């Protein structure tokens, strides 16, 4: 149980275009999802916290207009990188949390990640 | 603000040998601590977690970790490694009411297993 998927696993796009990444909780409803960014040989950095039905909370230094997050349902959150540039190339990882009170709610379950390359 | 330090970037261990991966944290209150493993093409998998109680925590795949408050450490151990343990290991500290809100990760330790 507690499986999280991401789509696509890899994407290459041209500079100036927008890219959407999907994060789905496959066997549970996730009221909260998180988006991380991982640079090569570096740690995961939390970008934003996404709550179903409300606006995402962004970490300091993350441009909310560049990284649009939508959490429209209990099983789907999307991250859209708008007007992507080469410096946005990175590995983007999402995680999801089981609602409080349910088994497993003390843990974040991670997706496999999406490799974004902007040319 | 919380922080996590994993002093070892890369560790090489022979198959069957014991393993210890170091993790030091900085957090103002009682920490929620986690160890995750990341394999290529797969998401981070939770190995074990510490919230309170017994300071020696048992996890999956034969891993254990010991919380030492006096040393601000949460080192991961395994008595005998297998080739399949080769991966990237991340220590993390969690904030929030249940420690699962803002996870702060260390930079990771890459484990290589030699025959």
Structure overview:
The complex is a heterodimer of chains A (119) and B (115). With 119 residues, chain A is mainly beta. Chain A has strands at 4-7, 10-13, 19-25, 32-38, 44-51, 57-58, 67-73, 76-81, 90-97, 108-110, 114-118. Chain A starts with a strand and ends with a strand. Chain B has 115 residues and is mainly β. In chain B, the strands form 3 sheets. In chain B, strands 2, 5, 6, 10, 11 and 12 form a 6-stranded mixed beta sheet that branches. A 4-stranded antiparallel beta sheet of chain B has the order 3-9-8-7, with no helix packed on it. The mean pLDDT of chain B is 91. Chain B has strands at residues 3-5, 10-14, 19-21, 24-26, 32-38, 45-50, 56-58, 64-68, 73-78, 87-94, 103-105, 109-114. Chains A and B meet through strand 5, strand 9 and strand 10 of A and strand 5, strand 6 and strand 11 of B.
Oligomer: heterodimer
Largest interface, by Cβ-Cβ below 8 angstroms: which chains and how many residues each? A-B, 23 and 24 residues
Assign an overall shape of chain A.
globular
Would you list the SSEs of chain B in sequence order as H and E? EEEEEEEEEEEE
The rounded distance between the terminal residues' Cα atoms of chain A is: 37 Å
Radius of gyration of chain A: 14 Å
What is the count of β-strands of chain B? 12
Mean pLDDT of chain B: 91
Give the tags.
heterodimer; A: 119 residues; mainly beta; seven-stranded mixed β-sheet; four-stranded antiparallel β-sheet; globular; B: 115 residues; six-stranded mixed β-sheet; 0% helix
Write the topology of this structure.
The complex is a heterodimer of chains A (119) and B (115).
Chain A: E1 4-7, E2 10-13, E3 19-25, E4 32-38, E5 44-51, E6 57-58, E7 67-73, E8 76-81, E9 90-97, E10 108-110, E11 114-118
Chain B: E1 3-5, E2 10-14, E3 19-21, E4 24-26, E5 32-38, E6 45-50, E7 56-58, E8 64-68, E9 73-78, E10 87-94, E11 103-105, E12 109-114
Parallel strand pairs in B: 2-12
Antiparallel strand pairs in B: 1-4, 3-9, 5-6, 5-10, 7-8, 8-9, 10-11, 10-12
């Amino acid at each position: 149980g507690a499986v999280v998927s991401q789509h696509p696993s890899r994407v290459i796009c041209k500079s100036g275009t927008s890219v959407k990444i999907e994060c789905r909780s496959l066997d549970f409803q996730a009221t909260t999802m998180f988006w991380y960014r991982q640079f090569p040989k570096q740690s995961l950095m939390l970008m934003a916290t996404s709550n179903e039905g409300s606006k995402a909370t962004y970490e300091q230094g993350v441009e909310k207009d560049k990284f649009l997050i939508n959490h429209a349902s209990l099983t789907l959150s999307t991250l859209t990188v708008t007007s992507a540039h080469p410096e946005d190339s990175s590995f983007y990882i999402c995680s999801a949390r089981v609602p409080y009170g349910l088994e497993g709610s003390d843990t974040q379950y991670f997706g496999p990640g999406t490799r974004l390359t902007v040319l | 603000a919380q922080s996590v330090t994993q002093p070892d970037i890369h560790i090489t261990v022979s198959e069957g040998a014991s393993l210890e991966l170091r993790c030091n944290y900085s957090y103002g209150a009682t920490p929620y601590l986690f160890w995750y493993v990341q394999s290529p093409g797969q998401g981070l998998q939770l190995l074990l977690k510490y919230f309170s109680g017994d300071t020696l925590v048992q996890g999956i795949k034969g891993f254990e970790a010991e919380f030492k408050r006096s040393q601000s450490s949460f080192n991961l151990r395994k008595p005998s490694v297998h080739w399949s343990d080769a991966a990237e290991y991340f220590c993390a500290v969690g904030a929030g009411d249940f420690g699962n809100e803002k996870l702060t990760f260390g930079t990771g330790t890459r484990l290589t297993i030699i025959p």
